[in-house]
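Need tokens for this chain, all 579 residues.
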Amino acid sequence: MDKFQSNKIFIGVSWPYASGKIHLGHLAGQNIACDVFARYHRQKGNRVLMVSGSDSHGTPILFKAEELNISPEELVTKSHKEIVETFKKLSLLYENYTTTTTENHKNVVQNIFLVLKERGYLYPQKSKQYYDEKVSKFLPDRYVRGTCPECGATNARGDECPECGKFLKPEDLIDPYSTLSDTKPVLKETEHFYLDLKKLEPQIAKWVEESSSDWRKWVREFSKGWLKEGLEAREVTRDLKFGIPVPVKGWEEKVIYVWIEAVVGYLSASIEWAQNIEKPSEWEEFWKDSTCKHYYFIAGGNTPFHTIIWPAEILAYSEKYEDDTLWEKYKFPGESKREKLNLPYDVPSNKMLLYKGKKMSKGDGTGMDADSLLEKYSPDLIRFFFLRYAPENHDREFEWKDFIDCNNNELVANLGNFINRTLTFISSKFENKIPKGELEKEVEDSINKAFKEIGHHIEKCEFVKASESLLKFGDYSNKYFNDKAPWVSFKENIDDCNNTMYNSIQLVNALRILLKPFTPNSSKKLSDMLNIDEEYDANQELETSGIVTRFEDKWSFNKLEGGKNLNPPTILFEKILSQ
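Here are the structure tokens for all 579 residues:
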């Protein structure tokens, strides 16, 4: 047998703004798929580092805090707590989920800012920016509203149109007005640092060309489209007081723009994780080992920040390792290896989930928050639905009919039906004891095929296909049970019945293991019914102790022996009778 090889997998998940509760768009965009991916790889025995946190700076925070008449600090504290509680209800497991308000994050961001500045990738430039004369303030992009020049929507923001999704600049808007006073702003000169993306364009273009062949087609083409249009220098500072200060003398009244700051969170959260486990250099195992694959789970609107801008920051910063002075001056906490930082391996970005035809947005108050769904429906159903109907390659409308069909026709009538029929038959006919039998080759082949297919699709970030393969295996299991008709053989040929139920329970156990990444609570419930309590589970260890210490491949089928006592069966998935 080949010796098991544990691989390293880094997973960065885009940071939701700490301006309110998680909405369904977050679940469809990134937060469910990332957890299924991470749970699978931990179950597979791979070393996983999944990080994210609450994005606690930027104009969306200020905008919401002013609307609620509370301080930004109060808002982010409250929102971060709510986000963590929601993620816990959904069984989302991170090695580290943090915020952008930590001293560690500030230091890492300022470190990167200064290296890019010293390497000549950041330069100051004067420009004109909208200014509200009534309140005497420069206006960040979201404080400017107006009509979208692309689609004519009248609620466009200075950074994006929520109707058509077009990226905008404040000066692009027709009939702009200030949200602070409803007056028309004027253009006034200010000065900011700019990131010279044009200077980095050849390196980025080369990297995208060489690395994007396995990306989703639309992500690859979208990124190449940006490059084809030509990259332009972008502002990286803002006239604000809430945020990470620009670490340059004379710039104390300005902060680092959130779009360049937040993506650095993937690295700062990794450094924080290493400190938390009291191994300060451990983050380098994921950021400096070229065999470690980096995956970024994000919603569609964040795509260019992860395929263009964050890679640009990494490429520019990695020049530090070739410079003796910079290497000594700008070491990260725990940094010991003079090696470049890893670039993304894959960016499985999802398109948008629409609600009543509109993009879900915290800032615009559109959509439904996740807690509203959790009040009435099981976390496992929500997890499975937002994977099953993930907008991987095109926008999808959230439909109640799809949600109920997913539960009643797939979880209940397919997977739950087979599991319940098998367990109740053994309970009533065999006194809750597995009959003795021999594993049929066709059953064994089907089980092995299911593990291989589902694992392959998860590794390729094809989560809709992974769920389809799981349901296809459920179809096979139901057909096996029906074709064998144990209710007949129990009366006419007990040996045949014994063998049928022995094989059926193996199919149930295979489903239990296959369900672990998708519906962890239901899988655990099924483990209890099958009287399995001494099985090592890396995800369970992470949940209870905060760290994984054993790396064993558990993505495989284990036979349950005949004669084993089972616990009384209960319904695994409940039918929804009405919305």
